[in-house]
């Protein structure tokens, strides 16, 4: 495998292209369990028939774990939005349609969203009273078994140059659970990127197209913010913790 064509550099990992393959190489100290879990998530989601790049192998390169997948030639939805700002509304609608398609699927082997959120809340830098309120709120939310991407944003959608089909990438955070938690996460990602207008448009479109009450999704925001804060970037942590602190005391 050739590792001379870098196509993305992310925290703790570098992504290379070698002809028709993508090789995601993780840092030497990256958790083996997390690498294998990401590969397993992708394999389980692949079985649902959703449009995602197929996983080809999990291997080690120079002592570092790597996941090898199909390469999809195209541009991300984020790039298309940047190049065609006048079409942003159209692209956001497409994003919502794809996310609703994900939520229609079931993958019983995936980690349960509530289990993951409870664990993250316990690890968050929040006082005991706030953590208790968030655990209680989470427990009271309806239990669903829908596939949730966990990092669904325009940069994780690639529109193929060949057939115009959209492919969803990066399934490291996939779980099964309540779709509104997934939507709250996407809304927060728009906010963290400084695109408050995009966040507002996205929320309005999702609520309208899925017939979901905005208040229902907003109930998830503090829970998701607390979860995101645990592994979030340092510069984002304070904003996320302020979101997580917006709780109702009864």
Helix content: 40-55%
Give a quick account of the main beta sheet: strands, pairing sense, barrel closure: 5 strands, antiparallel
Class of secondary structure makeup: alpha+beta
Strand content: 15-25%
What's the order of the H and E elements?
EEEHEEEHHHHEEEEHHHHH
Q: How far apart are the termini?
A: 59 Å
Rounded average pLDDT: 94
Output the number of helix runs: 10
Query: Can you tell me the residue ranges where pLDDT is under 50 for at least 5 consecutive residues?
Result: none
Q: Strands across the major sheet, in which order?
A: 1-2-3-5-4
The Rg value, from CA coordinates, equals 18 Å
Globally, the shape reads globular
Number of strands: 10
Explain what this protein looks like in three dimensions.
With 250 residues, the chain is of the alpha+beta class. It has ten helices and ten strands. The chain has helices spanning 32-46, 77-83, 88-103, 113-123, 128-140, 179-192, 196-210, 214-218, 221-231, 234-244; strands at 6-10, 13-18, 21-26, 55-61, 64-70, 74-76, 146-148, 157-160, 166-168, 175-177. The strands form three sheets. A five-stranded antiparallel sheet has the order 1-2-3-5-4, with helices on one face. It has a three-stranded antiparallel sheet with strand order 6-8-9. A two-stranded antiparallel sheet has the order 7-10. Strand 4 and strand 5 (64-70) form a beta hairpin. Helix 4 (113-123) packs antiparallel against helix 5, helix 6 crosses helix 9 (221-231) and helix 9 (221-231) runs antiparallel to helix 10. It is globular, with a radius of gyration of 18 Å. It starts with 5 loop residues before the first strand and ends in a 6-residue tail after the last helix.
């Amino acid at each position: 495998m050739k590792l001379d064509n870098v196509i993305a550099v992310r925290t703790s990992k570098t992504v290379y292209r070698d002809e028709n393959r993508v090789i995601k190489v993780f840092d030497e100290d990256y958790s083996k369990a997390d690498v294998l879990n990401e590969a397993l998530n992708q394999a389980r989601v692949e079985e649902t028939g959703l449009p995602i790049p197929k996983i080809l192998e999990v291997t080690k390169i120079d002592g570092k774990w790597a996941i090898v997948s199909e390469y999809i030639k195209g541009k991300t939805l984020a790039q298309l939005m940047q190049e065609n700002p006048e079409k942003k509304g159209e692209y956001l609608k497409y994003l919502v349609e794809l996310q609703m398609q994900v939520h229609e699927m079931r993958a019983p082997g995936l980690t349960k969203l509530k289990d993951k959120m409870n664990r993250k809340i316990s690890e968050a830098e929040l006082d005991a009273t706030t953590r208790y309120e968030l655990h209680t709120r989470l427990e009271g939310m309806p239990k669903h078994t829908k596939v949730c991407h966990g990092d669904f944003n325009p940069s994780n959608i690639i529109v193929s140059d060949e057939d115009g089909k959209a492919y969803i990438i990066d399934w490291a955070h996939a779980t099964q659970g309540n779709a509104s938690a997934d939507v709250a996460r996407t809304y927060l990602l728009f906010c963290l990127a400084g695109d408050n207008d995009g966040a507002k448009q996205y929320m309005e479109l999702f609520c309208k197209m899925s017939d979901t009450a905005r208040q229902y999704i907003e109930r998830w925001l503090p829970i998701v913010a607390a979860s995101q804060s645990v592994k979030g970037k340092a510069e984002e942590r304070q904003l996320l913790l302020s979101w997580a602190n917006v709780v109702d005391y009864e």
